[in-house]
UniProtKB/TrEMBL annotation:
UniProt keyword Transcription present: no
Name recorded for this polypeptide: Archaemetzincin-2
GO molecular function: metal ion binding; metallopeptidase activity
Keywords recorded for this protein, A-Z: Hydrolase, Metal-binding, Metalloprotease, Protease, Zinc
Cofactor(s) in the UniProt record: Zn(2+)
GO BP annotations listed: proteolysis
InterPro entries in alphabetical order: Archaemetzincin, MetalloPept_cat_dom_sf, Pept_M54_archaemetzincn
UniProt record similarity statement: Belongs to the peptidase M54 family.
Organism: Microcebus murinus
Length: 202
């Protein structure tokens, strides 16, 4: 197994910015929030641990991407940012998420709490759960796994139609396998950065 662990200097180069807007935002954080941000620079931090690669088929090896530091991310003209009018994340569950209704509700409650913590400051709202049939999406049975799979692109179209006016984004969640096109075996999720929709399975 290979372990990817960046040095403290590499992290500081990638994360620390002299952009006055970012500096101002950091200075407005309270002591606890600043302490949390500073955890990124501690090599022994439990919050930003090293990435372990188990095989050559791991995503980070088999799908190489150009590096992007925080400054590039922040300055990206296509980056969407919340506004007073668009400040809510909506979660749309599709199909059953557990063996019982109680398990499904507990799972969604946990997911809502996680999103509220991760996307601190945004409101997270739950849309009424819908069966897969309501999406009218294409589907297939995977030849290798024999699992039912639904077309991720069709789910995105469905979510776009359901997106509320105050939504920063709407996220679909399902326990059913997804596929983006016939030539793909499966996909973990898919998103539209322009429409503010995304779909992911478990």
């Amino acid at each position: 197994m290979q372990t990817i662990q960046h040095s403290e200097q590499t992290l500081k180069t990638a994360l620390i910015s002299k952009n006055p807007v970012l500096v101002s935002q950091y200075e407005k954080l309270d002591a606890g929030e600043q302490r949390l941000m500073n955890e990124a620079f501690r090599p022994t931090s439990g919050l930003f641990g090293p990435i372990t690669l188990h095989s050559q088929s791991d995503w980070i090896i088999s799908h190489p991407e150009a590096p992007q530091d925080f400054e590039e991310f922040f300055s990206d003209p296509y980056r969407k940012t919340p506004s007073p009018e668009k400040h809510s994340i909506y979660i749309q569950s599709i199909g059953s998420l557990g063996n019982t209704r109680i398990i499904s509700e507990e799972y969604i409650k946990w997911l809502k709490g996680y999103c509220e913590a991760f996307f601190y400051g945004l409101t997270v709202k739950l849309l009424e759960p819908v069966p897969v049939s309501a999406t009218r999406c294409s589907f297939r049975v995977n030849d290798n796994t024999q699992n039912l799979q639904i077309h991720a692109g069709d789910i995105l179209k469905y979510l776009k139609k359901k997106k509320p006016e105050d939504a920063f984004c709407v996220v679909g969640i399902t326990m059913i396998d997804l596929y983006p096109r016939d030539s793909w075996n499966f996909v973990f999720g898919q998103a539209s950065l322009t429409d503010g929709t995304s779909e992911m399975d478990r």
